[in-house]
Structure formats: structure tokens, C-alpha cells
Specification:
Protein name: Ig-like domain-containing protein
CATH architecture of one domain: Sandwich
Strand content: over 45%
Number of helices: 2
Helix content: under 10%
Number of strands: 64
Largest sheet: 5 strands, mixed
Distance between the termini: 100 Å
Radius of gyration: 43 Å
Mean pLDDT: 92
CATH topology of one domain: Jelly Rolls
Organism: Dactylosporangium sucinum
Shape: elongated
Keywords: Signal
CATH class of one domain: Mainly Beta
Length: 768
């Protein structure tokens, strides 16, 4: 027995109601039948059956056109699942109607069977529409395709197979589509041969590449009752767009446009007229996710916001359309400007390419401002551009020719840009971020010539143990006048010995070496060292003073120091100074650096070891101080000493000791009172030998300051110079246990460079 549900009878006409657009009325589909479980099914009708039993329901549907396609919407209810099949007069199954479409070859009457897949009862709805002869279809007028149109608004009834729209547009037209709803409402535009052209579901562009007239069946994927707004605007020969003027450089003021976009794929447009071919900028500012595309009047995409620079080269005079899209969840209000990059209007006064001039300070007073700084260049000049904000921000800057065409846009391993011809060029720039409360923000620019540079102080190689060759002074470049090819130390230091990194270029502006300790100079000549040469986002202005150290990698003029731990005093007299000392040890020997435990700041320089060719052997942070340094390479060997960053030049005391080979230190007696040492400013490193038979595999050492001031640290080495213990932290008194190898060991106690007396003992560490 079929059970009738009165509530459905009253609700279905309401669900089928369609909201009418303000400017265009969409014809509603046929009203749904109340509890219809078989019989003739008209196009557009929604049949709802509340109680399907084990006996299938049978519907008939008739198409009067050959090659028709049926759009079908079926849904099961709360009972057992229902399957739908469409068969011809011979009973041949043509379609399983769980799919959206069913293609029919011939006109005629077809049968639809609704049957339970299992179970004893179920409920369902079914609706069918014709592609060729729909139950109703709304024709969209030409005004519908204006960007100013609000579109067609309606509601798809529950279970509807779709609502039909027809329209005419010239073949080749390009349309901007909107998402018809936030949910699952969608459809497909069909051409005059009923072939698919574009899907309508998201905000996207559609080109009508084949002739019309065109049709669209809009439906909800799940058959739900869904409100929708259908909007399609023509980008080719666009209408309804706000005009956008070509703007001058600087604050565009009234030449800027505005726009408001709703949340989630909101779309708007601006119409731009070009008097001739040329390059324009597209400057849009907002704090949300806003994208833009620029089209010519035929609807061809010219450029978009994914480009590296916000500029478009427009190939001819005529009208162009800028389409803006909001991908954010929030509404967006924005400003837009189109500066004419092919004109000079609004450019600042010309600037030169000398490194000696101060950096340009550029002001920005508008969120959509683009600034222009002209300069003269010659064909073949290699020009480099630096930009940096004064307050936290990011500066976008690039070089253009007189037509506004960007230069050097492809990747190059070299720095800078080679100018193709002699003439006037320009730097275009703007700040990327803009706060709503901002009124005037500033940033700095430097445009400089790398090839045959002008304005750089000249520096010749200096000497070890002397002041740096380049005196303290400003300008971010130095000319290195090199008479002999080879490897050089070429570095820049502030007055507090902070290292400033630089790159070195030859006279043509090609990079010779990067920011590194050594630079290989291939031939005699003039080279240019530029601070942060490879960092376009860094402006180093004339308020930064530094010294320039230029030294051949091979040390010379280095006094010989003992390797028996005897202290020597030295003093740095200028920042960036390199002191050197010759170590007497033979190749293969091992040495360590010894320092007072209270040495800090300027009294605690860094050291490293090189051989006679300048080849790097050991660092000071680990090998000289934490393990030991084996002198490998070509003798003689040299210790190079430099002040650490942040320390002003000052005096220091240090020592070097050979720790391999036969013991050369006094024996440290085992047990008893051990040994006593007295430290002062010139005696802070004390060496002892423990013979092979006088220590265990684990030996305990104890030291204690008995008079004076200071603290001591302990290190133990085997006969080969390998460190087995320490260096320990410095303590006034301490007991440590070390695992030791067979054979004699060397014990070194380092103290502070102050008057103090220490006692040191050792005993078997394997026995408690």
C-alpha cells in the first residue's frame, strides 16, 4: 500500500519557487507532482514517490528530437536504495540514471524503471530535462554580459534536473564567469552543436571558440534546493567597467581608480585606453588576496599579477581591460593605478652612476605610487641597482629603458645589467607594504656602474703586522690596484672589527670572487670590491666607514716565536689588522695555542695557521684550542692573528707550544705535594711530563690556587700530540679524572695572566 504524505504536497510548490532577478525573469520549471510513482514524466517535472515496494515503478518520457540528451536528477530517500534505468521500446538498457546525462539517438518514447536494489520499501525523486527541447528556457539579453549587470537570481527546486538559459554572443568572445553559488550549483555551456564549451561553477574565464547559439543547464549536483546568481560578463569588448586613466609617476592622486570586491571570488574590472603601444604598470594595493589580469579588446590575456614585475607591455593603441579577483574570505576595497611607464611624466631629477654620491632617498606618499629616477648610461655599461627600506618594508625596484621595457629580466650568473645602447634609462620602484595610517614612507636607492666604476677610493696591497692598506672611510666600493696576480685576502672591517662582506669584480663588472676569505686575482689590473655586492636589497650609504685589508695570501715579514710555550706580547693598532708569527715547528709536528684564562675581548684574538704558500692548515676555534694542530704542507708555518668582531684594537698575550715528540717538560711527581707554579702577566702556561710508568689508565689530577688571584685550566696530550683530556673550564681549584693511553703524557696548566700560585698533583684514578 502506498502511503501519502500530505506535508510533501504542501512543501513541494514552495521548494520549486524561483527567486526572480531584478532585471531578468527566469522561467520556473514545472511544478513537482505529489507522490507520483510512475506514469508519464514531463520534462522539468519533479516526481516524488514516497513508497516504492518490491515491484518497480515505470515512467515514460518522450523526446521529439533526434540526438537529444537528457539531463537527469535522481535521488534516493530514507528507505532502501533505488536504482534507475532507461530502456528503449525493445527493452534494451541505454542508460543507468545515477549519472547526470543520457544520450539518445532517436526521437520517441522511452521507459524509466525505478527499482529497489535490495530491501522491501524505499522512496525517491526523479526529474528529467531535454537538452534540445527543455521545458522552459530563459534567453539572456546582451545587457546581461556587462560587468555592471547583477545577473539572474533564482532558486533551483529540490530534485530539479536543471534550469535552462540561452544566449547569443559572437564566436571568439571571452567571458568572465562567476561562481553561481557557494555550494554545488554548476552547469556546462554548450555551443550551437550542443558540444561542451566551458563549465560554470567557479570564477574563471571562458572562451566561446565555436559558434552558438549557446545554452546552459544549471543544476545542483546533489539535487538540493539551491539559490543561485548567474553572472557572465564579456571581457572582449567589455562593457560596464570603471574607466582607469594612465597615471604619471609619483602619487597618482585623482588618476587612481578604486574598487570593491565581495568575499570569495568577487570580480570587478577597469577599462584602460592606450594612445599608442607602450608599457604600463598595474599597481593595486590592498591587504587581502587580490589578483589581476590584463586583456586586450579581443579577450587575449596580455599579463597578470603572477609576473615578476607589475608591468605590461601593451602591443598597440586601443582599449584594454583589467579584471580584478578577490580570493579572500573577506570583502576587499582597493585602489588601482596604471602609471605610463613609457612616459617621463612625474620622474625625479636625473642621477649619476658614481659610487661616491650619497644614496637617493625616495619618498612614497600613496599606496599605489610608482617612483622614477632617470640616469644616463652608455652602451655596454654594466649597471647594478640596490634598494632598501628605511623602516621595515620591502622595496620593489627594476631598470627600464626609455619605453618602459624592463631590462635584464632573464637569469644571469653575473651581477648587474648590461645596457644595450647609449641613452636615458630609469629606475622604477615602490614600497610593497603600506599601512592605512601611513602618509609618507621613505627608502633608499643606489644605481651604480660596475664596469669602469667611478668614485671608489683606490687601495693597493698592504703588509702583515701593519695597518690595513685602505684607511677608514665611507663609500661602499674600493678599487684594488693589484700589480701581481695571485690569491689575496680582501676584506672590509668596521672600526670595531665587524666584518663587512664584499664581492670583487674586474674592470668589466664581471664577478671575480664572492664573499669569502680569499680572492683569486687572475691578472694584474684594477678590481672593484663592493660591500654586499650580491645583495640587491642592501644599501650601504656613506655613513658607513670601514677599513680595507688587502694582503697576499703568503705571509711575509713575520717574527719567529718559540714553540715551547713562552709567552709573547703584541698589539693591534688598527681595525682589520692581520698580525703574523712564524712557528719554528717542522712539517708533521703538532702545536697548540695557549692563552691566559682571563683573556677576554680585545685581549683574546682569533688565530689560524697557514703554510708557506698561504694554504689554510688549522683553525683557532677548534684545532689550536680544543684539539691540536698538525703542521701539514710546506714549511715554514705561520700563525695569523686577528681581532674578533665587536672588539676594538688592543694588546694581548699568547703562546704556542709543540705537544708531540720527546718530553721536554719537568716531570710532575705522583702523589705527595706534586708541583707548585707561580703565574704572572708573562707566565700563564706551565708544562709537565708524566712518564709512562707513573700513571694509570685513568689518572686523577688536582690543582688549587694557594695564593694570589686567577683560575686555571688543564689539558693532557699523548706523545703524538693528541689531546686526551681538556681543556677544562677554568677553576680556582678542581679535581678531574682523565682516561690516558700507554706511554708518557704531557700536562699543561693554563692560568690567568695575574699574580697567583697553584699547586698541582696527580694519583691513580682507577682506585677510589
Amino acid at each position: 500500500m502506498r502511503v501519502h504524505r500530505p506535508t510533501l504536497k504542501h512543501l513541494l510548490p514552495l521548494l520549486a519557487a524561483v527567486t526572480l532577478a531584478v532585471t531578468l525573469l527566469a522561467a520556473p520549471p514545472a511544478a513537482a507532482a505529489a507522490d507520483k510513482c510512475g506514469g508519464t514524466l514531463a520534462f522539468g517535472e519533479v516526481a516524488v514517490c514516497s513508497a516504492l515496494t518490491t515491484e518497480p515503478d515505470v515512467f515514460t518520457v518522450t523526446t521529439t528530437r533526434a540526438n537529444d540528451k537528457l539531463f537527469v536528477m535522481t535521488s534516493g530517500g530514507t528507505g532502501s536504495p533505488v536504482g534507475f534505468t532507461l530502456v528503449d521500446r525493445q527493452g534494451t538498457v541505454l542508460c543507468y540514471l545515477h549519472t547526470r546525462e543520457c544520450q539518445l539517438a532517436k526521437a520517441g518514447t522511452y521507459t524509466i524503471r525505478a527499482a529497489l536494489q535490495y530491501g522491501e520499501s524505499g522512496n525517491y525523486s526523479i526529474s528529467v530535462e531535454s537538452m534540445r527541447t527543455p521545458s522552459a528556457c530563459t534567453t539572456l539579453p546582451g545587457t546581461f554580459f556587462s560587468f555592471a549587470s547583477t545577473g539572474v537570481t533564482g532558486t533551483l527546486p529540490t530534485g530539479s534536473a536543471g534550469t535552462c538559459f540561452r544566449f547569443h554572443q559572437p564566436v571568439g568572445s571571452v567571458l568572465q564567469l562567476w561562481a553561481p553559488a557557494s555550494g554545488s550549483v554548476q552547469g556546462t555551456i554548450l555551443d550551437g552543436q550542443f558540444q561542451p564549451v566551458c563549465m560554470v561553477r567557479y570564477a574563471q574565464v571562458c572562451k566561446l571558440a565555436t559558434p552558438g547559439p549557446y545554452s546552459l543547464s544549471l543544476y545542483d549536483y546533489y539535487g538540493a534546493a539551491s539559490p543561485y546568481t548567474l553572472r557572465m560578463a564579456r571581457i572582449s569588448n567589455a562593457a560596464g567597467c570603471a574607466p582607469l586613466q594612465l597615471a604619471a609617476f609619483g602619487d597618482p592622486a585623482g588618476q587612481a581608480g578604486t574598487g570593491n570586491l565581495p568575499a570569495g571570488d568577487g570580480v570587478s574590472c577597469h577599462r584602460l585606453r592606450m594612445p599608442s603601444a607602450g608599457t604600463v604598470g598595474i599597481r593595486i594595493f590592498n591587504s587581502q588576496s587580490l589578483f589581476w589580469q590584463l586583456y586586450d579588446d579581443a579577450g587575449n590575456l596580455v599579463c597578470d599579477s603572477s609576473a615578476l614585475r607589475p608591468a605590461c607591455g601593451l602591443p598597440a593603441a586601443g582599449d584594454y581591460t583589467v579584471v580584478t579577483t578577490n580570493r579572500d574570505w573577506n570583502p576587499v576595497s582597493y585602489r588601482i593605478a596604471a602609471p605610463a611607464l613609457f612616459r617621463n611624466a612625474g620622474c625625479a631629477a636625473g642621477t649619476g652612476l658614481s659610487w661616491a654620491q650619497d644614496a637617493l632617498v625616495v619618498h612614497q606618499t600613496s599606496a599605489v605610487q610608482t617612483n622614477c629616477q632617470p640616469f644616463h648610461g652608455n652602451a655596454g655599461d654594466r649597471v647594478v641597482l640596490y634598494s632598501a627600506s628605511i623602516n621595515y618594508n620591502y622595496v620593489s625596484s627594476w631598470l627600464v629603458d626609455s619605453s618602459g621595457q624592463a631590462l635584464c629580466t632573464s637569469y644571469s650568473p653575473e651581477d648587474g645589467c648590461v645596457l644595450p645602447a647609449t641613452g636615458t634609462y630609469r629606475v622604477l620602484s615602490f614600497l610593497a607594504y603600506w599601512d592605512s595610517s601611513s602618509t609618507d614612507e621613505a627608502y633608499k636607492l643606489q644605481v651604480r656602474r660596475l664596469s669602469q666604476p667611478a668614485g671608489c677610493p683606490v687601495v693597493r696591497p698592504g703588509a702583515y703586522n701593519a695597518d690595513p692598506a685602505g684607511a677608514l672611510g665611507p663609500v661602499r666600493c674600493r678599487i684594488l690596484n693589484i700589480a701581481t696576480p695571485g690569491t689575496y685576502v680582501a676584506r672590509a672591517y668596521r672600526a670595531d672589527n665587524t666584518l663587512l662582506y664584499g664581492s670583487v669584480y674586474d674592470s668589466t663588472g664581471h664577478r671575480v670572487c664572492d664573499d669569502s676569505a680569499y680572492c683569486q686575482i687572475p691578472a694584474a689590473g684594477r678590481y672593484t670590491m663592493v660591500l654586499d655586492g650580491r645583495v640587491p636589497g642592501s644599501v650601504i650609504d656613506n655613513d658607513v666607514a670601514y677599513v680595507t685589508t688587502v694582503l697576499p695570501i703568503e705571509p711575509s715579514g713575520c717574527p719567529v716565536v718559540a714553540d715551547d710555550g713562552a709567552a709573547f706580547r703584541a698589539e693591534f693598532t688598527a681595525p682589520g689588522q692581520y698580525l703574523c708569527r712564524q712557528l719554528p715547528g717542522a712539517a708533521g709536528s703538532r702545536v697548540v695555542e695557549l692563552q691566559p684564562t682571563d683573556a677576554t675581548g680585545s685581549a683574546n684574538p682569533s688565530a689560524y695557521v697557514v703554510d708557506a704558500t698561504g694554504a689554510y692548515i688549522c683553525d683557532g676555534g677548534w684545532q689550536l684550542r680544543q684539539s691540536s694542530c698538525q703542521l701539514n704542507g710546506t714549511a715554514p708555518f705561520y700563525a695569523i692573528l686577528t681581532e674578533n668582531a665587536g672588539n676594538a684594537p688592543g694588546a694581548f698575550t699568547t703562546a704556542f707550544r709543540r705537544v708531540d715528540g720527546p718530553p721536554s717538560c719537568a716531570e710532575l711527581p705522583r702523589g705527595g705535594s706534586g708541583a707548585t707554579v707561580t703565574a704572572d702577566a708573562d707566565h700563564f702556561a706551565f708544562c709537565f711530563t708524566v712518564p709512562a710508568g707513573q700513571h694509570a689508565s685513568r689518572e686523577t689530577f688536582t690543582w688549587q690556587r694557594t695564593a694570589g688571584a686567577g683560575a686555571a685550566a688543564l689539558s693532557v696530550f699523548d706523545a703524538g700530540g693528541l689531546r686526551y683530556c681538556g681543556p677544562t673550564p677554568a677553576y680556582e681549584e678542581r679535581t678531574v679524572t682523565c682516561s690516558l693511553p700507554d706511554g708518557p703524557v704531557t700536562v699543561i696548566l693554563e692560568t690567568g695572566a695575574v699574580a697567583g700560585t697553584y699547586g698541582i698533583t696527580h694519583r691513580d684514578g682507577t682506585t677510589p
